[in-house]
Write a structure and sequence with these properties.
By secondary structure, the protein is of the alpha+beta class. Helix content is 40%, strand content 15%. The chain contains nine helices and 13 strands. A four-stranded antiparallel sheet has the order 1-3-6-5, with no helix packed on it. It has a four-stranded mixed sheet with strand order 2-7-8-4, with no helix packed on it. The longest helix is centred in the middle third of the chain and has 35 residues. It is flat.
């Protein structure tokens, strides 16, 4: 019996040969392609890190630590550069340590002696380097006159400032002296000089707003007594003279402060009682009310300024409030003769200034025409 390829028992190789004729073989690359690199350069390392280690001896100016940022903070007798480089300021021995007041920071410092450890106890004085040789003659004068280039260039300006300050102090002392002599003639020449210096000291603190009048007066008394105590320690006066000087000045200060005072502008005047001050303020306010709702001329403005600036009558805050009320930038519309009526479509009068104002009743913006005398800043 002959079995054909179309029969049920056909050979198995016939279909496999047909599938092989359909599939095509594809070859892929087996070699890896590398990319090209053009930037083959790199910057050199900055050599950061410690340059001196624990207990190493350093001289002033030697670098202890190079870093980026304050990973190590500067401690005793070291300086910090603009690039956070830590360098020695004194000759000594390097110490890396922790500060109990800043437990998260690491510090490096320079101990002046080998047996000293850092940090120093908090309430003990810092160890300083002494024992320098005493300079004499030309060497001492050269060291005293030595200054940096920046200090040398600043000398003309510093001298000019010092001269202006001296001239101001002398002029105020002369002013206070004449005021004291004109008001109270029972003070001696020495007491007048002490009183003038006392007023100058108080006026400077009031002008800078560093102390109140009472606190400045107490500080002036303390300074005088302290200077007297230092003079006594130097042997310039005895203990009995110190006690007498202290008691006499305290008595003088109490008497002087009851007669004279000074305001924040530096003007000295006789001290007023509470009743007299209230009466003076009421009188001044009554005079200022005469200038309400009227056109103000240059003469009126000067008169208002003089009333407000009376020495010892109004405080600094009261003066500012009174100036805003009686010397406004623009006079209120209630002042007669400062508002110009302009008909709709009419020509604007000469000298009239249009001002846009908000009317809260109608919630609208209206144009009001004012005369030039309503603007005090224009005069």
């Amino acid at each position: 019996m002959h079995i054909t390829t179309q029969g049920l028992l056909a050979p198995a190789k016939a279909p496999l040969r047909a599938v092989a004729q359909v599939l095509n073989q594809i070859r892929t690359a087996t070699k890896r392609v590398s990319s090209s690199r053009t930037n083959m350069k790199d910057s050199a390392g900055r050599r950061l890190g410690p340059k001196k280690f624990e207990s190493s001896f350093v001289k002033p100016g030697q670098i202890i630590m190079r870093q980026r940022g304050t990973k190590i903070h500067p401690g005793e007798n070291v300086g910090l550069g603009k690039d956070h480089t830590i360098f020695a300021l004194e000759p000594g021995y390097v110490r890396f340590y922790l500060d109990p007041f800043h437990p998260l920071r690491k510090y490096v410092g320079v101990a002046l002696k080998k047996d000293i450890m850092l940090p120093y106890p908090h309430f003990e004085p810092r160890v300083r380097r002494f024992g320098y040789n005493v300079l004499k003659g030309a060497a001492a004068e050269a060291e005293e006159n030595r200054m940096s280039r920046k200090e040398h260039l600043a000398q003309p300006e510093l001298k000019e400032r010092a001269q202006k300050k001296e001239d101001y102090n002398n002029s105020k002392i002369a002013e206070y002296t004449s005021t004291i002599q004109a008001t109270a003639g029972d003070f001696s020449e020495q007491e007048v000089a002490l009183g003038a210096a006392r007023l100058l000291f108080i006026s400077k603190h009031l002008a800078n707003e560093t102390l109140t009048e009472a606190a400045a007066a107490d500080q002036a008394t303390f300074n005088y007594v302290h200077d007297a105590e230092l003079a006594s320690k130097r042997g310039e006066s005895s203990a009995d003279e110190l006690a007498t000087s202290r008691a006499s000045y305290i008595e003088f200060a109490k008497k002087f402060d009851g007669l004279f005072t000074v305001d924040f502008t530096g003007a000295a005047h006789a001290r007023l009682s509470t009743e007299a001050l209230e009466a003076k303020q009421a009188e001044s306010r009554a005079k200022l009310d005469e200038f309400s709702n009227v056109k103000l001329s240059t003469k009126d403005l000067k008169q208002i300024e003089n009333i407000i600036s009376q020495p010892g009558v109004f405080s600094k805050a009261d003066r500012e409030a009174l100036k805003q009320k009686y010397i406004p930038t623009v006079l209120p519309e209630s002042v007669p003769g400062t508002v110009v009526e302009v008909k709709e479509g009419g020509k604007l009068p000469k000298g009239a200034v249009p001002v846009r104002t908000y009317d809260p009743t109608t919630r609208s913006i209206q144009t009001v025409y004012r005369t030039k005398d309503a603007f005090l800043s224009a005069e």
